[in-house]
Amino acid sequence: MRYKSQKVAREYLLAALPLFLLQVIFGILGSIKYIWGYDPLLNIIPFNVARAIHINLLVFWLLLALMGATYYMVAEEIKTEIYSVKLARLQLAILLASGVTAIVGYLFQWSFGLPFLEQPTVIKLAIVVAALIFLANVALTMFTNHHTLTRTSATLLGGMVMLSVMFLFGIPFVPNLSTQYYFWWWVIHLWVEGAWELIAASLVGWALIKMTGVSRQRIEGWVFAEVCLVLLTGIIGTGHHYYWIGTPHYWLWWGAIFSAAEPIPIMMMLVDTVRYMLKARTLSIVNTLGLAWLGASAFVHFMGAGVWGFGQTLPQINRWTHGTQITASHGHFAFWGAYGMLAIALMYIILPEISGHRTEQGSKLGFIAFVSLNFSMIFLVMALLIAGIVQVYLQRIMGMDFLEVQNYLRIWFEVRLVTGCIFFVGTVLVLWDLFRLARPLAAGERAPEPEPVAVPVA
Amino acid sequence: MARLWLRLCRAVTLVTDTDLPVGPTCAIMPTTRTILWTTTLLSAFVFLGMSVDSLHKMGARTHADQISAQVVEGKRLWQHYDCNDCHTILGIGGYYAPDVTKSYEIRGDAWLRQFLREPGKMYSTGRQMPNFHLTDAQVGSLVAYLQWVSAVDTNGWPPAPEGVAREQSPGTKIFLAQHCNTCHSIQGSGGTLAPDLTHEGSRQTKDWILVQINDPRSHKPDSIMPSFKQLPDSDKVELADYLASLK
C-alpha cells in the first residue's frame, strides 16, 4: 500500500465478508426447504423470501468487494490518492443502509418481485445515487492532475460505467411480462457476461502484473483481447435468453451462435492466468494462497461459466433444460468461480498489504478453507446437475408432474444440503483467516515497503 | 464548476480521442483502441437494431392488445407477493415450485381460482404455498394474468413430453391428467379438499359418478367441484369405469 487513501478498501472488503456468511446461511435455509416435507417456516420466511435474500446478498457482497478492490487498484495504477475518501465512505454507508433495508424489507413482503431485482424502487434509486458517487469518485481520481490511464484501469472504469447504466433497465415496471424480461436480461446478462467480465478481466490483469513480475505490456495486451472478445460475443449473446420468452424466432440462431463463442475469452483468461502464474514461482516472496485463489478462480470460471453455460446454450438442448435444476447448477458454479473466488483472491492480495505488508505464503487455516470451500462447491454443483438431469428426463421428457418429480430428486437435494454445510464451515474459516490478515500490524512488526517491481521492457 | 467541466471533457476525450501522448505507461494504443471500439459499437449497434425489431414484433407475439387493466393488476400482484422467487414463469425464476407459463391451459380456470383461494387444501402434504388470503378480485386478476401468459408465443416452449411416465389404465391417465388427485385422494395419495375415492366403487354406481363428472351441483348444490362436461364422452366413461372399479 503506497497511498493512505487506499485504506478505504479495507472497509469495503470487511463489510462484504459478513454478508457472504449471511448469504451462505440463507442458502442453507433454502436447501433445507427443498427436503422438508412440511415447512414450519412457511408463514415466517417462505422459500421466496429466503431465495430473494440469498441472491441479493450474493450481488451485494460481490459488488462491495469489487468496488473496494477498485478503489485500491485505481490509486495504485494511477499513482495518486483517491479523489475523496469521504465520498467513498458516504457511498459505502448508502449501499449498506439500502442493502440492509432491502433485506429486512423482504421479511415483511416489501418487494418489487423481479428475481435479483427485488429491491423496491426507492432502494434502487438509492443504489443509483451510490453508483454515481462511485463513478464520480473513480473518474475524478483518474482524470485529475493529468495522470495517465493504464489499460487495466480504463477497462475497469468501462466495466463500472456499463454496470451502472445497465442497472437502470431493471427499474421500471413494464406491464408486458415479455418486454419486462427483455430488459431484465439487459441487467442480468449484460452484467455477468459483460460489465462484470470487464471488471474481472482488469482486476485479474492488475493482480497478475503485481504478483508475477510478468511485463505489464504482455498482460495488458491479453486483457485487451479478452475484453474485445467478451463484448463481441457477450452483447449479442444475450440472445440465448431470448429463445422462449415471447421473442422472435431468429434469436434461436443469433443467440446460439454468439453465446457458443462466449467460452473463448474465458478460456483465454484461464490459459493466460495459469501461464503467468507459473512464472511467479521464480520470485522470492510469493503470496501462494492469493495466487491459488486467483488461478482456481480462472479454472472454475471457465468450468462454471464456460463449460456449464455452453452445455445448455444451444436451443436444441435448452428447450429441455430451461428452468430446471441444471440452471441452478450452472448459476452456483459460474458465480462462485467467476466472481466469488475472484473477490476472495483480491481480499487475500489486498488485505495483507493494507494491514502492514505481511509476507506470508498463506496460513494452514487459509488452505483448509480453500480446499473445503472449493470441494464442497464442486460436489454441490454436481448434485444439482444430477438432480437437473433426472428432472429433465422425468418431467420434460416423460411428462411426470412437477411435484411428483421433486420427490425423486430428494436424495440429490440431501447431498446438496450436506455440501452446503461443509461450504458454511469453509466460509467461517475463510472469514476468520481474512479478518486475522486484516488486523493492522504494529509498526515494529511490519515488513518494509517493497520497491516497485521494475518493469522489463518487452 | 469550470474545473469539473474540464475534467469531464478530458474524461470523454480520453476514451474517444485517439490522439493521446504515447509513453511507456501510456493508455490504450490508438490501433488497439480502435479495434476495441469498433467491435463494441458494431455489436451494440446490431444488438440494438435487433432489439427494436424484436420489441416491435413482440406486440403481436404476446397479444399485447389483450393486456387489460386486470392483467396488469395481476402482474402487480404476482410481483407484490414475489411469486417469481418460487415459481418460474417463461422458465425464469425460482425452481422450487412449478412453472406457471401454461398453468391456465393445464389446470383451467376453476382449478386455479380454487387453488389460489386455499392453496393448502389442494396439496395438504409436501411442499406448500402460503395462503395469501387473496380477495375474489385479486384471484380474478391473477387468473387473467396467467391466462394472458399462457397465450404468449414461446417458440414451442415447454416442449410436449415424449413418453408416458408409467403403464396406466386409460381411466387412471384421465384421473391424473385432469389433476383430480389435487383434491381427491386414492390410497393415501392426493389432496384432502374433496372426499377420498379409495372405495368409491363400493359407495356409488358408475351412472352416479357420470352425473357427478358432468354436473357436480346436481348432487350437492353448494359443491365446489368444477364440472368436467367438456371432456369427450369416451373419456368420461373411462373415468367413471375406473372410479367404479375402486371397491
Task: Please name the defining characteristics of this protein.
heterodimer; A: 458 residues; mainly alpha; 3 domains; 0% strand; globular; B: 247 residues; Cytochrome Bc1 Complex, Chain D, domain 2; two-stranded antiparallel sheet; 11 helices; 51% helix; 3% strand
Q: Uncertain spans of chain B, ≥5 residues at pLDDT below 50?
A: 11-26
Name the helix and strand elements of chain B from N-terminus to C-terminus, one letter apiece.
HHHEEHHHHHEEHHH
Number of helices of chain B: 11
Which pair of chains forms the biggest interface, and how many residues does each contribute?
A: A-B, 86 and 79 residues
- Count of individual helical segments of chain A: 15
Explain what you see.
The complex is a heterodimer of chains A (458) and B (247). Chain A is built from 15 helices and no strands. The model of chain A has no long low-confidence stretch (mean pLDDT 92). Helices cover 74% and strands 0% of the residues of chain A. Chain A folds into three domains: 1-148; 172-283, no CATH class; 290-442, no CATH class. Chain A is an all-alpha fold. With 247 residues, chain B is mainly α. In chain B, 51% of the residues lie in helices and 3% in strands. In chain B, the strands form two sheets. In chain B, strands 1-2 form a two-stranded antiparallel sheet. In chain B, strands 3-4 form a two-stranded antiparallel ribbon. In chain B, β3 (185-186) and β4 form a beta hairpin. Among the domains of chain B are: 67-150, Cytochrome c-like domain (Cytochrome Bc1 Complex, Chain D, domain 2); 170-244, Cytochrome c-like domain (Cytochrome Bc1 Complex, Chain D, domain 2, Orthogonal Bundle), CATH 1.10.760.10. In chain B, α3 (69-80) crosses α7, α8 (170-177) packs across α11 and α10 packs across α11 (233-244). The termini of chain B are far apart. The radius of gyration of chain B is 29 Å and the shape is elongated. Chain B has eleven helices and four strands, in the order αααββαααααββααα. The chains are: A mainly alpha (458), B mainly alpha (247). The interface between A and B is large, with 86 and 79 residues.
